[in-house]
């Protein structure tokens, strides 16, 4: 399954799909999130390609969105000492998991962070630290976000 990672398309239906995925995946953990919050994030990424946020989409050969990832200034981890930026909302449609699409998205986010001048990039994950470690991310610490234990990680430049 060949996919292309690109800036989030300016196509309402594709953006809505990505926003619904993200809200469905993380909405229970983050009560301030909504589908509109993600749509606003994507719109903010349209403003200036030389600044945050950066929102990406993985597209299949048929032009359908199959995954998404973002690079944002602050990913709402309470009292986090890490300065950011943060990789956030990495999501791949179930049919495309295990095909390398997620890695493509994350590696492109890291590449974009370097273009913006960031040496270190951070993230936290509830469930897949080993997957990130396989791409060169390093463990920093564990923390709690809204009652869920998370692993905080860094990709050093």
Helix coverage percent = 25-40%
- Low-confidence runs of at least 5 consecutive residues: none
Q: In what order do the strands lie side by side in the largest sheet?
A: 1-2-3-4
- The number of helices is 4
CATH topology: Aminopeptidase
Total strands: 7
* Beta-strand content estimate: 25-35%
Q: Number of folding domains?
A: 1
If you compute it from the alpha carbons, what radius of gyration comes out, rounded to the nearest whole angstrom?
A: 15 Å
Q: Biggest sheet, in brief?
A: 4 strands, antiparallel
Shape, per Cα inertia axes: globular
Structural class: alpha+beta
| SSE topology string | EHHEEEHEHEE
CATH class: Alpha Beta
Walk me through this protein's architecture.
The chain has 157 residues and is an alpha+beta fold. Helices cover 29% and strands 31% of the residues. It is built from four helices and seven strands, in the order βααβββαβαββ. The strands form two sheets. It has a four-stranded antiparallel sheet with strand order 1-2-3-4, with helices on both faces. Strands 5-7-6 form a three-stranded antiparallel sheet. A hairpin with a 2-residue loop joins strand 6 and strand 7. It is globular. The N and C termini lie far apart (30 Å).
Layout of secondary structure:
Blueprint: E1 3-7, H1 12-26, H2 35-45, E2 54-60, E3 65-72, E4 86-92, H3 101-115, E5 121-125, H4 129-133, E6 138-145, E7 148-155
Antiparallel strand pairs: 1-2, 2-3, 3-4, 5-7, 6-7
